[in-house]
Protein 1
Amino acid sequence: MNFASGLPDPRTIPKNEIKEIIAEAFEIYGYQVLQYSPSSGLSKLVKEVIKFVYRTRGLRANLNNVIIVSGSQQGLELVSRIFIDPGDIVVVEEPTYLLALNVFKLRKARIVSVPVDDEGMDVNVLEDIVKDLKKDGKKPKIVYTMPVAQNPTGVTMSINRRKHLLELAEKYNFIIVEDDAYGLLSFDYEQPPIASLMGLNNVVYISSLSKVLAPGLRVGYVIANENIINKMYVLKQFMDLGTSVLGQAIAQIALEKGVVDKNAEYAKRLYRLKKNLMIELIDGMFFSESWRSNPKGGFYIWVKLNKNIDTRKLFEQSKRNGVIFTPGANLCVNTYRCLDAMRLSYSNPSEDEIRIGIYRLSSLIREMANVS
Amino acid sequence: MNFASGLPDPRTIPKNEIKEIIAEAFEIYGYQVLQYSPSSGLSKLVKEVIKFVYRTRGLRANLNNVIIVSGSQQGLELVSRIFIDPGDIVVVEEPTYLLALNVFKLRKARIVSVPVDDEGMDVNVLEDIVKDLKKDGKKPKIVYTMPVAQNPTGVTMSINRRKHLLELAEKYNFIIVEDDAYGLLSFDYEQPPIASLMGLNNVVYISSLSKVLAPGLRVGYVIANENIINKMYVLKQFMDLGTSVLGQAIAQIALEKGVVDKNAEYAKRLYRLKKNLMIELIDGMFFSESWRSNPKGGFYIWVKLNKNIDTRKLFEQSKRNGVIFTPGANLCVNTYRCLDAMRLSYSNPSEDEIRIGIYRLSSLIREMANVS
C-alpha cells in the first residue's frame, strides 16, 4: 500500500487514446516527430497550451510568454537557476513540496516558511515576515506557492489571500512562483490561478500535463513575462537542448482534440471519490485527537496526529506492514513542527488498498500511542 | 542550405521501425510507458545500454555505473553541476562543441584550451599546461574531449595520445569527460573510447542515441564510477524527475532488437558518402591557401581560409544567399585564432544542397578575398 508516491491513478492515463494520437503524430509530423526541435518547444504545442490555459484557467498568455519544459520539475529548476543566488531568501509554504524545497536548498537559498491553514498560505504571516525583512534592507526573491489543491495539504488559497499576496509582491517587489500542478483537479469549483488576476508582472506560472494526461511524457510549461521566458530559453538549451519531441507532439494533439480536458474531468471525479473514501476511513479509524486537512483537490491529505508520535518511526513500522507514506518532517522547513504529521496520498492506490492500508495504519498508530 | 545545424539526415531516422517499436512498447509496458519511472532510468534500458556499449565500444559497465539522461547535453550539464565550482579550471579542445563551452562558462569555470590537430587534442600541450598549473598549486578539474570524430573537426585522437591523456589524468588527478556522441559514426575503423582502456577511474563517459536512432527521443546515458552516478541520480531527480519514459521504452526495444546497431551502420555509410562529396567540392572550389580537416567520422568539416576574411562577416553575406554555417569564432576560446575558420556540416543537407551551397560559398569567399 503506497500512500507515499505522487503517481496518478493508472485509470487516469488514457493509454488507448494516446496510442491513436501517436499514429496521428506520425501522420502529421512525419520523421520530424523524432528530429531535434527548438529548445523553446514545438510552436504548435505552444499555441495549444495558450488556448488550454485560457479556456481551463482563464489565464491569458501570448507566444512570447510560454516555454515548454520537461515537466513542472524542470520549471522549478529553471526558476531557481534564474532567480536564486546563494543566500537569497525564498519563502515556501509549510508544509510544502519536497522536491521544490530541495531545488531551492541546492541553490543555497535561505528558506523561510509560512504556515498553511484551511485558506491556504497565511498571507498575514508572510506580510509580517516581509516587513521585518524590509527593516534589514532585505526582501524575499521569490515566494513559492501552490494556491490550488496544495501539496501536501490539498487546501486552496482563498481569493482574498491571493489578492493580498499579489499586492505584497507588487509593493515589496518579489516574484510569486505559482505551481499549478493540481490546478485542474479542483473538486468543487474552479479556482483561478494568481497569474490570471492581474497579469504576469510579478508571477511565474508553472504547470504540466503529468496529472491530467500522462507523467511519462514529461511535458510541462512555464508562463511568465517575456524577459523571464527568454532567459529560460537559453538555459533550457544548455540543460537538455529541448523536451522530447514525440512527447510534445502527443501533448499538442491531445490538447487539440480535447482529450486532456475530457481526461481531467474524469480524473477529478475519480480523485474526489478516492479522497472521500480515505477521509471517511481516517475520520472513522484514527483517534479523535488527530487532525486532517480538508482537501479541495489534488492527490493528498495532511494528517497531524497531535500525539507524541514521531511519524518517521511510525514509517519504519508501517513499512514492515506493507504500508508507506511520507513523514511530515520531510516536507517542512521547521521539521520539529511536523514530527507528528504525515502526507497520505490517495491518487495511486486502489480503493481496496486504501481500505486495507488505512486500517493497518490506524492500528499501528493506536499501538504506538497506547490507545486502544 | 543549412551547413550550420547538427541535425541528422532524415534518412537515418528509422521512422517506420520506431512506429512498430512503439506498438510493442505499449504491449510490453502497458500504461507504465506513460507513468513516472525512476530518475535513474528504466532498468531494462540500463541493461540494454550496458550490452550495447560493450558490443559496440568495448566498454564494460555494471548497473551502478549508468544513468539514463535526456540526451548528451543533460550529461554535460550534470557533469558541470557536479564537478565545476566558480573559478575551477576546465580544459577544452580548440575548436570545441559550443554548448559544452557555454555550459562550462555558465558555471563560471576558467576555461583553458588545447589545440586539435590531425591526431586530435595535442596532449603534449596539455601536459605543459598541467605542469605549469601545478607550479601554482593548481590543476584542471576536468578535461573535456571528443576523442572520436571530434566536433567540429571530425578528427579522431590517436591511441597513443589517449593513453597519454589517461596517464596525465591519473598523475595529476583530473577527470576526463569523454563525449562519445559520434563514436558509432567512425568512417574507417572503430576507435575504442578512452573509458574502455583502463576502467572508469578517471573518466566520465557520455553518449546518446541522438545520432544513431532519433534525437527527438532525447535519450542518452552517462557511464562513470558509482560515486559519480549516485550524485547524478539525485541531481537528475531535481532537474526533471526522469527522462521521458516512452522515449526510454523505445530506446530499450530498439537496442534489444538490434535496430540501433543496424541503423548506425547505415548512417555511417551515408555520412561517409556525404563527407566525401563535400570534401571533393571544397578541394575543387575553395582557393588553394585554405585548409580543411580530414574528418574520420561524424557530421562536420573544419575549414580555415587562411586569408584575412572574418567568417562572421562572410556569414552575413552567405545568409542573404541562402547558405548558413557556423563561424569559427563561436567554437573557440581564443576567438582571434578562429576568425577565418568555419564549421561546415554535411549531416542534414541533401547531396544537391551540398553541391549548390558549397558552390555559392566558394564564390562569395573568392569575392571577399578578391581572388578571381
Protein 2
Amino acid sequence: MKNIRNILNSRFKRNGNFFMELTKILGFKPKHIEFFKTAFTHRSMNLRDGEGNAINYERLEFLGDAMLSSVIASHLYQEVPSGDEGYLTKMRSKVVSREHLNELGKELNLIDLVESKIPAGQFGDNIHGNLFEALVGAIFLDRGYKYCEKFIFKRVILPKVDIEKLEGKVISYKSLLIEWCQKEKKTFGYNVYEDTGNDDVRHFSVKLSIDQKIVAKARATSKKKAEEKASKRAFFAFQNKISKMI
Amino acid sequence: MKNIRNILNSRFKRNGNFFMELTKILGFKPKHIEFFKTAFTHRSMNLRDGEGNAINYERLEFLGDAMLSSVIASHLYQEVPSGDEGYLTKMRSKVVSREHLNELGKELNLIDLVESKIPAGQFGDNIHGNLFEALVGAIFLDRGYKYCEKFIFKRVILPKVDIEKLEGKVISYKSLLIEWCQKEKKTFGYNVYEDTGNDDVRHFSVKLSIDQKIVAKARATSKKKAEEKASKRAFFAFQNKISKMI
C-alpha cells in the first residue's frame, strides 16, 4: 500500500486541487486518497507497483460495477414489489446502462481529474462511465458499502431513477394488454360482475380471458379498478412476451 | 409487512423447527423471520400480499445474486491484484456458476426447509442454487451487507474459493505461455542477461519475445524467477487469447 501511495504521489500532478475537488464530488473527505488517485489514473500512465501489477482505474471499474449493481438491485427490489426477477433485472440494466453511466460521469466532470498521457480530446465517450464506475469502486474500498450506497443514492437514484419512467411510462396496463392482444391476434374479454360479498362497500370482480382462457382475476371497489388490477396481473404473467413490444 | 407476516405464519407448516434449523445454517438469529420464510416459499404455494404481489423466493434470488456478485467481486479484487477486469469477471463467474450454487444449496440441505405444493422429488437441480441465492437475499434484508458478507465468506469463500484452482492451477506461467506459442505456431525466445546494476545482490533481466517482438521484460534475483515474471506479464497481456486454451 505504502509503495502504491508513493508511486501515485510522485506522478499525480494536481495533488492539492485533487483532494478538494474530489471532496466536493464525494460529499465527504476521503480517508485513503490513493484509492481515488488510482480511480483517476489512466493506463497510458504506465504505472506499476513493486510486483509489476498495473496501477490504473480498470480493475476499480469491475469493483464499482458490482457495487452499483447490488445497490440498484436492492433499491428496485424494495420499490417495485410487483416486478418479478426478470423484470427487475431488465430495469436494473436500464439504470446501469453504458449510456446512463457516461451521462453520470460527464455531469460530474470526472474527466477533468484524470491523469493521462493521452490528450482528453482523444478519449471515447465511454471514459466518463468507466471513471464513474471506478470512483464507486474507490468509495467502497475507502469507506465500505454504506458510503457507497449513500453516494449512489445521491448521485444515481435520486436524480435519475424514476421507476415509472423506467417501467416505460405504463399508465394503463389494460391498454397495454389490449394493444398486445390486437397485435398478436388474440381474442380477449373482461367479464365483470358485482361481487360485494360481506363487504360494506360495493365490490366488483372481473375475470380476464385471453383466447377463451381465464388468465387473471381481480376484485376492487370499481369496475375500472378491477379491470386494471386484472390487466396488471396478466401483464406480469405474460411480461416476457409483452415487454418485447414496449 | 405485518400483512405478509400473517400470511406466511398461517401457511408455514414448520414454524417451530424452522427458526432453529435456520439459525443453525445462518450462524446467527434472524431478526425478521418473514424474509426467511419468503426465501423458502415456493411459487406453487400461490401466496399473495394485499396488493396481489406474489410471495415466494423468486424476487429474493435476484437480490441474493446481486449480493453474491458484489461480495465475490470485492474478495477477488483484493486477492488477485494481477488480474485485470476481464480476468476478474471470468473468475467471478466460475464462483457464482449455476453448478457451484446448486452444490452450496445442496450441502446446506436447503430444500428440506421449502414450503411447496410440489413434491420435493419433482424439483429440478436448480432449486438448490435458487434457494441459496434467495437465502443470501433474505440475509441482506434482515441484517444488511456486513452480515451478508460474513455469511458468504463462511459458506462460499472459505470452503470453496481457491484462487489457484480458479486460475486453472497455473503453476508455471512459462510452461503455459510456451504451450500456447506452440499451439499457435508462434516463435518465442527468452533473452536473459546479468543486470545487477547498483544492487548488492546479483540480478538478471530477461526480454521475452514472441514472433520476434519483445512482449514483456522482467528483472529478478535468478534467471528462472525473471523468466517466470516475464511470462506472467505476457500471460496477462495476452490473457484473453490464452485463456481460451485453459
Protein 3
Amino acid sequence: MKHITSDQNPQIKQLRMLRERPARQRDRILLDGVHLCQAWLQHHGQPECAVVAQGRLEQSDIAAILALIGASRILCVPDVLFSRLSEVESHQGILFVAARPVPALPDLVSENAVWLDRIQDPGNLGTLIRTAAAAGIRRLFLSRGTASAWSPKALRAGQGGHFVVTLHEEIMPETLLPRLAVPLAATTLEQARSLYDGALPQQCVWVFGNEGQGVDPALLQAAGLRIRIPHEQDRVESLNVAVAAALCLFEQRRQHGAVG
Amino acid sequence: MKHITSDQNPQIKQLRMLRERPARQRDRILLDGVHLCQAWLQHHGQPECAVVAQGRLEQSDIAAILALIGASRILCVPDVLFSRLSEVESHQGILFVAARPVPALPDLVSENAVWLDRIQDPGNLGTLIRTAAAAGIRRLFLSRGTASAWSPKALRAGQGGHFVVTLHEEIMPETLLPRLAVPLAATTLEQARSLYDGALPQQCVWVFGNEGQGVDPALLQAAGLRIRIPHEQDRVESLNVAVAAALCLFEQRRQHGAVG
C-alpha cells in the first residue's frame, strides 16, 4: 500500500482530472463506494488502483475489499484529500479507478437486445440499463453520442444493472446493422403499429432514441418493425424514454409467457 | 409594470428566498420559462406576479404572455438580476410566482387514480406525473413526505403532465382511505399476485411507494389488491418506481381495450 499525503502528488492530480473531466480519459472510469467496488471485483476483477481514506482502513467491508487487491494497487490518502476525489457528498471512503470495459462485438446478434441511440440524460440511461436487465436483456448497444454508461449518475440509476449485462459503447450504425440476425424494432409515433396490436417477435433488437429527437432516421429506415405506444397524446406529447422501453420490453415478456 | 434595479429590493429578496428555500414558503411556487408560464395562464389563470428580464420585454412570446397579465403584477428587472433569480442556466427571461394549487379533496374517489407515497426524487415524481397523465389518469394524491410536485426538477420531468391532472399534495392516509370507493392496489414483492395473472379492475387507486422502502405498511395493509411485476429478480433487485407505475397503468389500459 502506498501512502500519499500531498494534494500535488501526480497520481492524485490525475485522479482529480478523471473526476472533473472524464471525457478526457474515456478509457478509464471511477467506481465510487463500497457496493460498486464489490460489484467490480465480482464481475470484472482487479481495478487499476483502489483509493482508500485513511480513517476507513479498518472498517470491515473496506478491509475485505482491500484484501482482494494487490497491495501495489492501493493508494491510502488522508480523509480530507479523499473527500476532494469523491463525487459523493457523504462518501464511503473507497473508490476504484478501472479500465472502461470494451467487450468485443459479436459477429452476429441473434438474441433479444437493446440499442440506445444518443440517450443524453445519465439518469435515463441508468434506468434503461436497470430496466433492460430486469426484463431479461443481456446485451445493450449504445450509439456514439449516448451519455457515458459508467458515469457516477448512470451507475447510481443503474442500481447494479451494469454488472449483469454486456454494454457495448460507441457503436456506429454501419458497424452494428450488418450483424443483426433478428429484426430491428424501433419506437416512433409515425407509421407505426400499436405495441398491443398483434404479436411481437420473441427476439429482436429494440432501439430507443434520443429524448428530444427520437430514433435516428437512418435507424428508423432500417427497422423492420415500427412500434408506437398508444397513450393520451392530446394530453401528454410523449413518454419518457425509459418508460417507453419498459413498456415494450415487458409487453414482449408478457406475450412470451412471463406471467409467473 | 414596476421596474426594479436593486438586488436589495424587498420583493427581489423574497423571490430569491423562494428559489433558495422553497420549503419555507410552501404556499407559493416558481414557474420558470415560457412554456410553464403559458401553461399556468391556460390552466390556472393569473399568477401572483410575473418577473421579466428587461432585455426580453420585446420578445414576441414573452410580450404575448405579459399582455395577459395585469400590469400591477409585472416586475421588470435587469437581465443580470434575473439570472440570479432563475434556476435555469440559460434562462428564458420570464418567471411566475404563483399560489400553490390546493384543490379540494373529492368526498368519494370513484375513478382510476394514483397515490404516490413518499416519493423522494423530483425526477421520478415528475416522470410519474407525466406517465400517469399519458395513461389517462386525471387525479394524483401525494402523501405528506413526497417531494414537492411543483419544484423546478419535478416540473421539468413532468413535461406538461402537471397541467392536465389534478394534484392533491400533503395527503394523510387517514384522510384519504375512508374516501375510496374503488379498490386500493399496491405494488409490492411480498404476498402479491403477478400483474399479468388475471384481470385488473377497470378502476382502482394505484399506490406506488418510496424508492427505498416501498409502500407504507399501513397502506399495504389497506390494499385489497397486492401486485408484483415479475422480473429477473436474481439479476436486478427491483424496478425504478416510475417504470413500475408505467407497467401497471399501461397493463390496465391494455386489458381494458386501449390497443388502438
Protein 4
Amino acid sequence: MTNETIVTAAMLAIGDELLSGRTKDKNIGHLADMLTLSGIDLKEVRIVGDEENAIVEALNALRTKYDYIFTSGGIGPTHDDITADAVSAAFGVPCEYDADAMNLLGEMYARRGLEFTEARKRMARMPKGARHIPNPVSTAPGFVIGNVHVMAGVPQVFQAMVDAVIPTLRTGTRVLSLGISCPYGEGDIGTPLAAIQKAHPETSIGSYPRYIGQAFSTEIVVRGRSQDAVDAAGDDVRAMIESIRQSKEVAENRSAEA
Amino acid sequence: MTNETIVTAAMLAIGDELLSGRTKDKNIGHLADMLTLSGIDLKEVRIVGDEENAIVEALNALRTKYDYIFTSGGIGPTHDDITADAVSAAFGVPCEYDADAMNLLGEMYARRGLEFTEARKRMARMPKGARHIPNPVSTAPGFVIGNVHVMAGVPQVFQAMVDAVIPTLRTGTRVLSLGISCPYGEGDIGTPLAAIQKAHPETSIGSYPRYIGQAFSTEIVVRGRSQDAVDAAGDDVRAMIESIRQSKEVAENRSAEA
C-alpha cells in the first residue's frame, strides 16, 4: 500500500441515440482500457440524453467527485449538439466562438472548397477559457475546461482525442492485472475464492462467469498495484483450481467404484 | 401531444470489470432496444463498481427520479457479488436467504448431482419482501423490490430476465422512429435541419454522423409519439436533402462552365 498514487476519473457519455438503442456505445470500453493502461481508475460512468439540465447536473456531480472527467458526444454542428452550451452552463461561463477554432475550421473548409456555414461555425463554440483538444481526424477540436475533457462521440474521433489527452494527465500507480482461466463455475469456487480474497487484501479479485453451452466456467482476475501481491494471490488461485480438480477426480472415482 | 403517456426508466450496470475495460458491456444497448420497443423512455444509465456505497448512492438517486430502475450484475455466488446486500441497504431492509429461492436452487443442484455450497446459497439472498424474476437459463433468480429490477450481468441471463420483466411493466406511448440516410455531412445539413426541428416541435430530430473513408455522411432520425408528426417532419427532411443535392449540382455546373 506504500507509495501508491490513486488518480480517479469518470466518464459522461452524451446522446439520445445511446439511450434509444440506436447506437451501441463503443467509447466507454475504449476509455476504460486506455485509463487502466495509464494508471487512472475509472470509477463511474453516466449516460444522459441531449438535454442541457441532465448534462449540467451529471457533470457537476462528477467533476467535484473525481480527478478527471471525460465526455463523449454532442460537439457536432447540428441543433442537437448542445454539449458546449451545457458545459459552459455547468462552469458558469459564457459559451463563445473560439478565435483559434474559427481560424482552424475556416482554413480547413476553405482548403476543401466548402462553405463555412453557420452550422459548421457551431463547432468552434466552447466555454470561455477552454483549451483545445486537437482532432487529427476531422479538425473540429474538443476542449478542456477545469478537469473536464470534452470529446467527440464518433469513435474514430473520440479515440484520436483520447490519444491526445492521455499524455497530458497526471497518472497514478498502474493497476496490474492477472487473468486465470478456471474451468469451474462460481458455485464451485465461491467459498475458497472469498478466503483467498480475505488473505490478500492488497488485491481485488474478481470472477467473471462465462456461460457456454450448458455450463458455466469462470475467468478469475487478480488486480492490484503491487506485482508481488498480485503474484501471491495468483499462486493461491491456481492452487485452489488444482485442489478442486483433485476433489472432483476423487468424487468421480468413487461414483465409478460404486 | 394529447393522450400521451410517458414512462421513464434508468439502468445501473454494476461491476469493476466494466470500469477496468475487461468486459465491454452488452446489456445497456440491449435494454435500450427493448425499452424503446415497449414504449418506456430510458433516460439515464450509470455504471459503478462492486462497492456497496457507490451502488447504494446511485440506486437511491435513480429510484426516486424515474418510474423503473433496472440493474445488471453482482448477483452471482462469489465474494464480489454484493448487489443483493447493496439493494437491501438502499431500501433499508434486511438481506435474507429467500425460502423459495433456496428450494429452487437446492432442487436444481440435487438434480445435477452438485453440492449446494455456501457460495451457491448466496444466490438465494435478496432483500426481505422482494419478488423473483425467473431465470430460465441458470435458475438463480433475479428480484424486484419497489421499482427496482435486479438482474444478472451475464448477457444470456440478463436478456432472459428482461424478457420476463417487460410484460409486467406499465408502458407508455411508443416512440416511433424514422431513419433517413443522408449523403451529406452535418456541416451541410445543420442549419436547415435546425429549422425543420423548430417547425416540428412534436418530434425530436437527431443526426448521427458517420465517418467513412475521408468524408462524413449522416443518418437523420426523426422520433415522436405521433405518426403524422413523424411523417410530416420526415417529408421536410427528404425535401431538404433534395434541395442540397440540387444546389450542389448547380455549383458543380457553374465551376464546370468557368
